[in-house]
Structure formats: structure tokens, C-alpha cells
Amino acid sequence: MTTAVGDTHDPALESFVASANDPATDFPLQNLPLGRFRRGSREEWQIGAAIGDQVLPLRESGFVATDDMNRLMAAGAAARRSLRHALSMALRSDSPRAADLRRHLVAQADIELGLPCRIGDYTDFYTGIHHATNVGKLFRPDNPLLPNYKWVPIGYHGRASSIVVSGHPIRRPHGQSKDADAATPSFGPTRRLDYELELGAFIGEGNVLGEPIAIDSAASHVFGFVLFNDWTARDVQAWEYQPLGPFLSKNFASTVSPWIVTLEALAPFRAPFVRPAADPAPLPYLDSAVDRAMGAFDITLEVWLQTAAMRDTGVPATRLMSSNFRDSYWTLAQLVAHHTITGCNLQPGDLLGTGTQSGPGPGQGGSMLELSNGGRAPLRLPNGETRTFLQDGDTVILRGYCERPGARRIGFGDCAGTVTPA
Length: 422
Known about the structure:
By secondary structure, the protein is an alpha+beta fold.
């Protein structure tokens, strides 16, 4: 079961990799996220596991037979659990393989990280009810939440080809937009560039076309989570989104963090999924006792911003907000079950975005659109600068981590992108 907590989660475990024992690291022995790296631009991509500030190449150290992450994903949950257990045993402080594996370790500072897998298809959902409500209030004050929201997981099919890994620059896109008092639209660089704080779920084992995935087995088809920034041109979006939804306002770039935190690593941070008593119960195909008992994930999410002026004067990035994935209105299992109820076939490496994860409180908006109240209330930064939307040179950093008493803190690593001129 991907929900089981076992010996690999023991908070007392330590590694012979000293940096993995630092309480502040995102990548202790209890995490072991997977990604793809290379030592130089002329080398082939390899699968690695992050451990502290190091990476262990998995094929050359004998843990897998392939450097094709999608093949590893397709092998299913049992193979993933077996790999996690083998890595945990081999990287412990008392491991008989310590001397051998030290020869294979590579410093993360000395490698290039790539997209964690080949992404075939990408679907973005809208599970953050607080984001949906906040944005709805800006445009429909009397009816912010559309009537289908609490019945069906809203989503749209996005563009996989423009998904990039953390650190890739984000070029400001051009597009059509129309000011409220203008008679005709205009064309030019977006003036309302925004970020969206999301998680991305990568599919592991897929399903056959025509055969839906039942909600009780849905989680076993998910390989793990990454942080996901779905950059958005808000002025282009406002003009184009009716009647068919996002198109050019979303297709120019989305950023993922390079390390996939597996569902097994997240097992200690599963939580009950509870809806308000007055809300409608999900339809039967979206409901199960198991999902109600542990369908939520306790993942703290943050957005940090560093402007070009801050960077030039040595001012560190400042945190703009924090929220938690527990506040999502739909669960991961519900997304998978809904996506496949028509018989749609998900495949290894497909990516499901969660939608913007805003919190219920003031100042917990997961986008600049929310934090600036649609551009009407500029944010003041520590160096005196203000922002309503992103400017050229701004670096947006998403961070995520899990912590609770009796468990080792684990994290996702940074998901960062810097805006460059159109």
C-alpha cells in the first residue's frame, strides 16, 4: 500500500552521507526523491536519488537496470516500494555498502538537473477552492463559485511541450489583450504576468484505454509529486478564456521542480479528507472510505520572490505567502478517478496539475492576482519596491515541505524561474 508507514520512515534513521542528517535538508534518508541528471551537456541523462546535498546514480550503482525514468514509472508501485527499501538500507549509516556507494555519489552543485521524465500529456485541475473563490470574487462578486465546482473536479488539457525544469528562464510572452475601456484589443507583451502555486502529480503505471481507474486503486497509479508553477498572462487570459478556457495565456511555460517525491515518502503525512457538512457528497465514483480516511496530504507550500534590485544589492528572497495542500477541495485519488471515468488512458509520465493552492486566510493567495487584489493593492517588498504583477528580472521560487511530530521533515527542493524580457 502506498499509504503504509514502515521502517524507511523511522525518524531516527541516519545516513553515512553527513548532509542528509542536517535537520534543515529537504532530502534526508526518509525522503529519497528521484530525478534525472547529467554531469555535463555531452552526457546522457541518468536516474538519480537525492540524498542530502548529493545524488546517487541508480543504474551505475546497481539499483536499476535502466536510465529511462518512464520505464521505471511504468513498473508500478510494488517496484517503486522495493527500490525505496533497497536505497534506504544501502544508504544508512551502518550500511556495508557505504564505501562502495561513496565512490558513486555526485554533489548536486556539480550536475545539471533535467525534467524528471518525458511528459507525454498534461492536465491542469482547479482543486483549490480558496483560489477559485478569491478569483471569482474579483469578476463575479455576487456569485464567485460556479455551480458545478463542488460536484465535478474542473480541469483542462494543457501544453506539455513548454513545461521546463526549475532554473529555466521564463520569457515574457506576447498576446492579445483588451482593456475594459478600449473599443478593440491590442497586441504586445503581457503586462500582467503572474505565477500560480501548484503541485504536480506524475502518473506511474497507466491504464488501458476504455478501462477507468477506480478511486480505491487510484493512488497506486501515481508515482509522486513535484512543485509546479503554472505561469499565466492574466491580461491575455481575460480576453481569450471565454468560452473555451486557457490557451495562449498558459502555453508559454510551466515550471516543475526536478525531484519527484514519491507517494511512499509522503505516507507519514497523509491525513483525513473532510468536506464541510453542508456541501454535497461526491458522486459514488468519487467517494470511498479509504479516500475519506487518508486522501489528504499535509504539505506546506510557499512562494518566495527576489527582484532584480534585491539580487543586485544582496537582499535575499522574501516569502510572499504560505498555504497547505490539505485545504484542496478534491483529492489526488478523485482527480485520477475522474480523469479516467470516460476510459481515458493515462500513461507513465503524464502530469496532473492541482490548480492554484491558496489558503483560507488573508494573505494566503497562491497567485499575485489574489495578493494584489487584481492589481488594485500593490504588495510592498522589504526593500521598498512594490509589485502588482511580475516585472522583468523577478525570480519566483516555490518551496514545499512536510513536517509533523514523530516524523522526519522532508522537502521538495526549489522550483524557480526568472522572468526575462519579451
